[in-house]
Amino acid sequence: MWKAVKDREAGFLLPSSFATRIRSHRVASLDLSNHKEIVSPHNGAINSLQVDLTEARYLLSGSSDGSAAVYDIQHATDYERGLIAKHKSLFVVDKQHNHGHRYAISTAIWYPVDTGLFITGSFDHYIKVWDTNTTQVVMDFKMPGKVYRTAMSSIATTHMLIAAGSTDVQVRLCDIASGAFTHTLSGHRDGVMSLEWSTSSEWILVTGGCDGAIRFWDIRRAGCFRVLDQSRSQLGRRPPLAESTSKKDTTIIGLLCTTSCEGSVTGQSSSVKSMVSQRRIPLGNEMKQLRAHRKSQNLTRGPVVQRLHPGLSSSHNRATAHYGAVTGLRATGDGMYLLSSGSDSRLRLWDVDSGCNTLVNFEAMRLQPTKALQLAVTQDSSLVFVPCLATVKAYDVRSGMTFRTFRGHYELVNCCCLSSQDQELYTGSNDRQILVWSPASPVIAEVEEDGKGGWDSVADQDNWSD
Amino acid sequence: MGRESEAEAGTRAVARLIEKATNSTAGEVDPRLLKAIKSTVRSSSDEIHAAVDSLMDHMKKQHAQVRFLAVLIVDELFMRSKLFRSVLVVNLDQFLSLSIGFRRDLPLPPPSSIASHLRSKSIELLEKWNASFGIHYRQLRLGFNYLKNTLRYQFPNRLENATRLQQERQEREMRSKQILLDKFENLKDKFSSIQAEIQSTIDEIEECLEILSVKQEEFTPNLSTEDDEVEEFKSLTLQQIRLDSLKEGEKVKEDSDNKVIFDALRESLKLLISKHLSSVQEWISVLVRVDLTDNKFRDNALKEFIDIRNLIHSVRARCGQLGCFLDNPSDLKKDEDDDDLWEEGKIEHYMPATSSVPNSSVGNSADTATSSKGKDVALPDANKSSIGHVLSSTSERSRLLVEAPVVTWGPFLDNWGPNQDVLANHRGLELQAHWGRVDYDAVIPAEKIAELNFHRTVYKEEPVELPPCRAPLKKGGLCQRRDLRVCPFHGPIVARDDEGNPIDQNSQGDRETEKEYPTAATDLRSDSVDAHGTLNLGKEMVEKLGRQAVKNVRERERDMKSMKRAKLAKIREHNEDVLREAAIASTSYSEAFAEHPATSVRNGAEVKVKKPTLASMLKKKITAKDRLAQRLLNSRVTDSASRQLMQGEDSKYREAFPNQW
C-alpha cells in the first residue's frame, strides 16, 4: 500500500487507478464488523436496503412488517462499552403511521437526486413517495397488484419516473412530477420481480419477470426492443476498450454508456435502432469517438443478422433468460454488463451490447426462489455479492469463482447493498438483522488493543490454566 | 518437508485424541484425554485449526452423544484459546444448528434424552460465551440474539440470577444490620433502667434467701445416726438414692410458716429467669453482633451484661440448692440451652450404633425373666454374636458385655440381683391414716418379688434383609426383586456371583436330579441349604419328611399342569398351522410377517449383557407397547379381524334382508 502511495506521489500512478486499487483492496478484506451495528427496529424480514446516492450517508431499509427506517451510517447514535458503535434508526414509518403501508414493504429506494424523498413499494398495491424531513406521504400510486420492485434511474436528468414491477404483467412508470402513470409497458407474461434502469442510458429500462424473460425497454418508444435469450451466447468478452480512447476520455462513464448502446445498435445492424440511438445522443463531441469505436466493434461481432422491429418476431419474443422467475437484476457500474439471478439458482452475466449470455460459470449456489433478491456489484464491477440462502457470496464477475462467503445471518438473506464510498456491505435477512460488513481497519484493532486495560470485562486473550 | 510431515503427524494426533474422547458413553469427557487435547492444541496454531476441523466433523455425526462430548471439548478450548474462538466463530451458525438443532430441517440426532441434554447444555454454554466474549465477537452476539429474541429460546440466565441473588443477600444483610443498630441505640437509652430492674429483682431474691437461711439455722435436723439401721439396702443405687434423700432432708422444707416467703421467692425467681435472663441473653447477642465504629460503650455493656448473667446463674443455683425450682422444667432447660445458643455449631446426629452390639447377645445365664420368645428373636443374630466373641477375647469385661442380656428398661431393674425378701411397708408411704393395724414388718417373699418382676416384652420382628434375586436380565443388570424363596420370574433364589450366574452349580444339579429321585437328593440338599441351622436331628428329620410330602404333592400338580399345558400348546400349534396355511393361500407375503414375531421372541430370550456402546445407545428399546403392537398389528391379525368384520356384516345383511339372500 505504501508503495502505491509513493507511486502516486511520484506520478507513476493515475489518481483513478490509485483509488481503484485502494477500493478493491478494501473490498477484498470485508468482514463482519464487530464495531458497527445497525439496530434494526423491524419486526419482519428486511426486504430492501439502499444507501443514498448523494451523500452515501443514509441507509434506507424496508421490512416485511410494513415499516421502513432510515439510519445514519456515518455517525453512531450511541456506543456500547465505548467500542461498539450502535446506529439506531433516525426515524421509522410503520403501520402506526397514518399513511403507512398495511402490508410488507418489498422495496424502498431513495430519490436519486437528494435525500429529501424516498419511495416505498408494498404488497398492499401502493407505491408511496415520502418526504424524508416531515415523514409524510407526498404522493401515492395505486398499482394493479402487489409491488415487487421499484426503481429510479440514477442518471436521469430529463425525467422523474419510478418504474414499478408488480404481480401484474404490465410494468408501469409513475411520474412524480405529475402523479400519474406515464407508461404501461406490456410484454411479460407473468409478474415482474426485478427492475433495473440502465446505468448508461437514462431511457433504457431492464425488467425481469416471473416468466423467466428479461426485457429491455426504451421508454421513448413502444414495445420492448430486446429479450435476452439464455441459448444465445458468446464465448469470452468483448475486447477491452482501446487504451487510447479510455485514456483520452475523462468522463469514462459517458463513453461507456455510448459505446454500449452504440455497440448494440451496430451489432444488430438494425436501422430503426441505430436511428433511435443516434437521435438520443445530443452531444456532438462524442460522435467522432463513436465512429471510431463502431469500426472496431464491427470487426469482432459475428454476423448476427435478424429483423428487428418494435414488435419482435414471435420466436424471439418467447426467449427466456432463466428457467423460472428472474429474481434479481443488477447492471454493472459501467453499463456494459447485466447480472441476473433466477429461481433456477443461476447467476448469469449478460453482455448488454450484444444481448448474449457470456457463459460465465458462477460456481454452485442455491438461491431463494420465491423472493426478489437485491444483488450488489462493486464500483469497478469486479465482484458481485449475491444472497445465497443464509449466506452472502461474493463472486468474481469475470471468472465466476467464489471469492468469499459471508456467514453471519441465521435465516435467508434477501438483500445486500454496497456503499461505494466507504466500501461497506449491508445485508438484510429474514432474521430481522441488518449486518454491516466492513473492511478490516488497522485503527480499530489498535484501539481495541489499547482499550483492553481499561475494561472490566474479560479481555479477549488466551487463557490457559494448565 | 520434514516440518510438514511433523505437522501432519501432529494434526493426526489431535484428531485421534478427539476421536477417542468423543467415542465414549460417559456423561463427560475423560479428564486425562481432555488434558492431553489441551496440551496438544496449545503447542501450535496448526493444531488449533486441526482441532476445529475435527470437532466440526464430529459435530456432524448423527449421534447426540458424540456431539455432546464434542461440545464439551469445544467449550474447554473456547474458554482458553483466542485463535480457537476466532476460528470457530466464523462457522458459529453451523455449530449452533448442530448443537442446538434450531433448524427444523436439521433436528438433533437420537438418542433423544441425550439430545435434549445436549441442547440445554449448548444453550447454557452459548450464554456463558456471550457473557464473557460477546463484546469481541459479533457472531456470538448475533447467535445469542437470534436464539433469544427470534426463536425465543429460554436461556438459564445464570449471570443475571447470580447478581440478583447477590443483591438480595446484600439487602438482607443491610436490613439486619440496621435492625441491630436500632436495637443497640435502644439499649443505649435503656441500659441503666434494665440494670436497675434486674438488680432489684436479685435483691429481692437475696432477701428471701436470707430469711430462709436464718430459719434453716434454727432447726438443723440430724439424721446421720439412722444410717446404720438401713443396712439391708445393699444395692448401690439404692444407697445413692438414700443419700440423696438424706441431703434433701437437710434442705429447708416448705411449710405453712415459710410458704409466703417461698412464694415470693419463686415469683421473683421466675421473673428473673423467664424475663431478665432471656433479655440479657438477647442483649448480649445483639452486642456481639452489632458492628460499630466506637466500641467503648459496647465493650462496657457487654462486660456488664455478662456479669449480670453470671449473677443470675449463681442466684438460680442457690435457689436450686434450696429446693426452689420453677414448676416448669422445660423452661429451665430452655434457659440452659440459651447459654450456648449463639455459639453456633452443628448439631451432631445421635447415632444409635452402640446399641447393636449388646442387642445381639443371647442371655440365658441368670436371666429368669427373659422368655423363650426372646430366644427365638435372638436366633438370627447367632453369627453376629460369634463375631462378638472373637472381639471379646481381648478383655474380660467386653466379653461379659457381649454375653450380657439386653433388656428393655423397667422398674424391675430396681432390685436386680438381690434374691431377698422385701419389706412391704418401707416405701415412704403415709400409712398413718389407714384404718386397722399396720404391720411394719410385713415382708414380700423373694419368690413373689421375682414373680412380680417377671419381664414381659412385646414380640417385635427383627427386620430381615431379604437378598435380591440377582438373576441376569435381558436388558442388562441383575434382577433386584427381593423374595423370600422364589422369584416369580427367575425361579428359586440361589447364591449368584456378580455376573448373575449361580455360584453353586452342584446344588442346582442336585435339585434337578432331586426331581427324579426325590428321596435320595433331599439329604444332600437340606444339608447344603440348612448348613447353618442349629436345629437338632430329630426335628430335622420331621421337617425333611414334611417338606418331602409337600414336594411330592406339588410335583404331581406340576406334572398335571405341564401335561395340560402341552396339550394346549399342541392344540394351539395345530390351529396356527391351519391359520397360516390359510393366510399363505390368501396372500403370499404375509408369511414373512407371520414368521417375524416368532424370531423376535427367540432373540429376546437370549440373555446378553453387553458393554454399552454408542451404537447400543441408538437402538430403540423394545417396550411392552411395541411388543403388543407387533402382536396386534401384524397382518395375520388384521386380516382375521377384517374377515371377522366382513362376516359380521354379511350376517347382518342376511338378517336385514332375508328375502334377498
UniProtKB/TrEMBL annotation, chain A:
It comes from the Eukaryota. This is WD repeat-containing protein ATCSA-1 isoform X1. The keyword Magnesium does not apply. GO terms for cellular component: Cul4A-RING E3 ubiquitin ligase complex; nucleotide-excision repair complex. WD repeats lie at residues 39-81, 98-140, 185-227, 319-360, 406-438. InterPro entries: Rad28/ERCC8/Ckn1/ATCSA-1 (IPR042238), WD40/YVTN_repeat-like_dom_sf (IPR015943), WD40_PAC1 (IPR020472), WD40_repeat_CS (IPR019775), WD40_repeat_dom_sf (IPR036322), WD40_rpt (IPR001680). Keywords: DNA damage, DNA repair, Repeat, WD repeat. GO terms for biological process: proteasome-mediated ubiquitin-dependent protein catabolic process; protein polyubiquitination; transcription-coupled nucleotide-excision repair. Gene3D superfamilies: YVTN repeat-like/Quinoprotein amine dehydrogenase. It comes from Elaeis guineensis var. tenera (Oil palm). Pfam families: WD40.
UniProtKB/TrEMBL annotation, chain B:
It comes from the Eukaryota. It is found in: Chromosome. Residues 353-372 have a biased composition (Polar residues). One of its GO terms (biological process) is response to UV. Residues 167-204 form a coiled coil. Belongs to the UVSSA family. PANTHER family: UV-STIMULATED SCAFFOLD PROTEIN A. This is UV-stimulated scaffold protein A homolog. The gene is LOC105040903.
